[in-house]
């Protein structure tokens, strides 16, 4: 497997990487847990694990995007951007690294200044959206990951978002802080029906969205790389035990069927939140009824369902790439920004 270029997406909880060959085909996709809030050594370890698997040659190039600058290990985002770029150049040859800076394209690490840091910070969504826009005329791109959901309208091969920073995008319902793994279940609802009554939910980190979707039978095993809320087993029984705690109950006090039904309620609350955000985007009138919802992220099974509810066709983000048969569970859709930044960089600088 000859690797020409690796796209990296440094998140706060995961490190994602996508490798391209000289023809621009995806030959490998990996995601490693990387709790960046615990220190930069976690990033070094995760990056080296991926490099050991990919085993790129000395001429391999690297394209970088990120959201990890947000973690509270850093004093502010500027410090985070500069630290993550430096950490990447320590693991990869500095001359081979280029950093995605949104409208400014790809920057040499040595050219990054305090002024360019805001364009680099949390710009991974734009890499994905630009790749969609390059391949599809009109669409609504929706990436539901472990922690967040990114939404970007595409019209006439142009990205038509109104925000750029996290604050702006949250303001316009283009960034929704809910995903299918790490989101605390208590953030999805403050009460839920149980045994014929509405019951208040404990505001405690007892269960996560991973428990909800495991009980619903939808969460891929490979997608959940985060520890459970109680550090316990990531099984259906374990998830029922954690969800029961939100009700002030033990799992044994009710049937598994009842806990599955409770999980479906939390699922519907999250879908309602996402549906509302999509309604907001669609109300702008940019899309025709035959434009697809393009789904990415480990939670893209929800994008498919939302497309059906809204009456739009569905298209998977992986369909926008030429991809050699994967060697593990991950697809380009699971690591959308890493795949996109790799292909955008390959297109900008060309093969060696």
UniProtKB/TrEMBL annotation:
Gene3D superfamilies: 3.30.420.40, conserved archaeal protein q6m145. NCBIfam families: one_C_unchar_1 (TIGR03123). GO terms for molecular function: hydrolase activity; kinase activity. This is Predicted sugar kinase of the RNAseH/HSP70 fold. The keyword Kinase applies. Residues 63-313 form the Hydantoinase A/oxoprolinase domain. Keywords: Kinase, Transferase.
């Amino acid at each position: 497997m000859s690797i020409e270029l690796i796209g990296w997406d440094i998140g706060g909880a995961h490190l994602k990487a996508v490798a391209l060959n000289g023809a621009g085909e995806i030959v490998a996709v990996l995601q490693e847990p990387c709790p960046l809030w615990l220190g930069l050594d976690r990033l070094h370890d995760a990056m080296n694990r991926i490099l050991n698997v990919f085993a790129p040659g000395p001429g391999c190039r690297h394209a970088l995007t990120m959201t990890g600058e947000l973690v509270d290990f850093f004093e502010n985002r500027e410090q985070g951007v500069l630290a993550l770029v430096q950490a990447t150049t320590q693991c990869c040859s500095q001359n081979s690294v280029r950093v995605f800076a949104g409208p400014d394209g790809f920057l040499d690490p040595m050219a990054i200044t305090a002024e360019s840091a805001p364009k680099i910070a949390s710009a991974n969504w734009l890499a994905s959206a630009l790749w969609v826009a390059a391949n599809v005329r009109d669409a609504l791109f929706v990436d539901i990951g472990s922690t967040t959901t990114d939404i970007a309208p595409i019209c006439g091969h142009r990205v038509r978002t109104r925000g750029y920073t996290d604050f702006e995008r949250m303001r316009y319902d283009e960034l929704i802080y809910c995903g299918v793994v790490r989101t605390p279940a208590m953030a999805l609802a403050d009460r839920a029906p149980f045994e014929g009554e509405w019951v208040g939910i404990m505001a405690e980190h007892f269960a996560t969205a991973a428990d909800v979707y495991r009980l619903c039978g939808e969460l891929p095993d490979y997608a959940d790389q985060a520890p459970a809320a109680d550090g316990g087993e990531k099984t259906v029984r374990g998830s029922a035990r954690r969800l029961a705690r939100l009700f002030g109950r033990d799992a044994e006090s009710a049937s598994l069927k009842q806990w599955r039904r409770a999980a479906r309620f939390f699922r519907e609350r999250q879908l309602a939140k996402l549906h509302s955000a999509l309604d907001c985007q669609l109300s702008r009138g940019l899309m025709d009824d035959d434009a697809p919802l393009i789904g990415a992220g480990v939670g893209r099974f929800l994008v498919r369902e939302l497309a059906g509810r809204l009456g739009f066709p569905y298209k998977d983000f992986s369909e926008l790439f030429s991809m050699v048969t994967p060697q593990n569970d991950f697809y380009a859709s699971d690591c959308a920004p890493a795949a996109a930044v790799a292909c955008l960089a390959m297109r900008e600088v060309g093969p060696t």
